[in-house]
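Entry 14. Two folds queued back to back today. First construct below, sequence then structure tokens.
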Amino acid sequence: MFSPEGPTLRELAVQAMSSVERGYDLLAPKFDRTPYRTPDRVLDAVASALEPLGPFGTGLDLCCGTGAGTDVLARVCRGRVTGVDFSEGMLTVARERARPAGAAPAWVRADARALPFAPAFDLVVSFGAFGHFLPRELPGLFAQVHSVLRPGGLFAFPVAAPPPPGSRPYWALLGFDAAMRARNAVWRPPFVMYYRTFRLGQVGRELARAGFRTALHPLAEFGRRPDGSPRARLVTARRAPAPAGAATGAAVRAGS
């Protein structure tokens, strides 16, 4: 599961008994050599799905970690790319690994639930971070994303289909979430990381309440399940365009 250069079992145990922020600070130097880093296959599929929806201007990688998602933004955005995360350790690694073809990304330390930006972005992406937010936090999180997008801007993120009940992945995820809930019941500070709380139906409802118009795009690279449904989708949520005749500044229309 982990490469020889990845974290040891002891290091993972220390991380798991820390807060989310402290845990990722500790994990950061070896994060890219763990399964937690979004695979290049997913990043490439998302970039390919976004390209026909552009071009985009400025981009924000929400909960950017070590910056893998900013590579996607660099492919589809013409303007400045920014990564935001609350772990200074992850941002330090992101700064070190960044090899931009154009302008260097901006790296900002901040909580996704209180973003320090004006409506300055045409595209916001996020990869693999939503398990760190409890379901009750989604309305506030999506409201924050809405607030930093220009009119007509797009919020996009991939989601995998849930594993079939009774399958090995199903029991693995169920067991992980159960272990995490037990840990948080007896240990402080809590470490919020649940794989089964980010449900597509609820997510769609909360995005709509936040003012987004949502769509689902199958990621064909991952094929389909036996019932014909996609194994992975890209969720796109668009902030409403400015009213006809209103000033839109430097907003870039990202297509429909």
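Second construct, same run, same settings:
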Amino acid sequence: MDFSYSDEQRQLADSLRRFTDERYPIDARRKALRAPDGFSRDAWRAYAEFGLLGLTISSEHGGFDGNATDTFAVQFEAGRALLCEPLIPCAVMAAGLIQLAGTDAQRQAHLTAIAEGREIVALAYQEQDSRYDFARPSTVARTDGDSFVLDGRKVHVWHGEAAHTLIVSAWNASAEALSLFIVPASAAGVSVRAYPMLDGERAAEITLQAVRVPRSAMLGDGARGEAMLEAALERGIAALCASSAGAMGRLIEMTGEYLLTRKQFGQALARFQALRHRVADMLVQKELALSMAHLAASAIDVADATERRRMISSAKLIVGRAARFVGEQAVQLHGGMGVTAELAVGDYFKYLTASSLRLGDADYHADVLASLPMDPGTRALVA
């Protein structure tokens, strides 16, 4: 399989790298995290101008008809620069979900606004005590005339504080299934409590008390909400794997630079063989993570749901473990400096740690893989 960039993808990646090198140093990121919404609005407008926010949105709605490999090129650079804007929750997961399952009216109402940077949409699907299981939410949607009334509480809503619109999962008794609803964040009965996460990015707890939405707010088929939500999360996982691979690559570069300049016993640390071996181990893990991130991107277009799930969970599992290894090694090789604010290594370590937990940690995806039927190739080897 050819994972090399097309000319257009290379140009897009190069443009984003130039932007981040010139305008998004680590100090700018730290300042953005302290902003009211936890990210830079100026950067968000720049992403809209670059076309990043409408990358996978259809040209009919102001986008560029991109695919998962285009998203990979963007997210790799985003991870390399530790961009803290809601690219994945909004431009990848929410936009992809509306593009995939929305009605013409829903696409018209939201996709162009997302592509232009005027609207931020977040997924509200996780609940307390449910970990990563989203299949049977305690949030309920009951019919009342021509409306649905939603009651429940969502946690860990990634960039929920900045969202203008929420896509909320709820148990729909009338359909006896999980359904998804497009809910304005300003709707009566919606309350938001925001908080910072491990890496400084923002999340929110969303409470819905008798929130009334029209029937037209239901996203797609009310009986297929679980499958639609899973498809959105798979896109998010593929993007997150690419971002983590980019962050690992930059962290290794920073570690190499430090070892070349820091001296002990009159010579650079990079001359000590034991330390060189540790950097080599980091490179091996990064390359493994990069390969699995490519696998996750290629999985998005796989028609078979079981095989797609196997590929996505395998990637998330291996990338998460590699991220932890690379992050820990980088901190240790920087010594005491690795845990100070003077260097960016701590920011990267916290980002990689948080990313390994988002959208399912290693244990969760190991359980997913264990629950899937054995693929024919493995079955033949076992036999």
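Quick look at the second one. DSSP finds twelve helices and nine strands in the chain. The mean pLDDT is 93.
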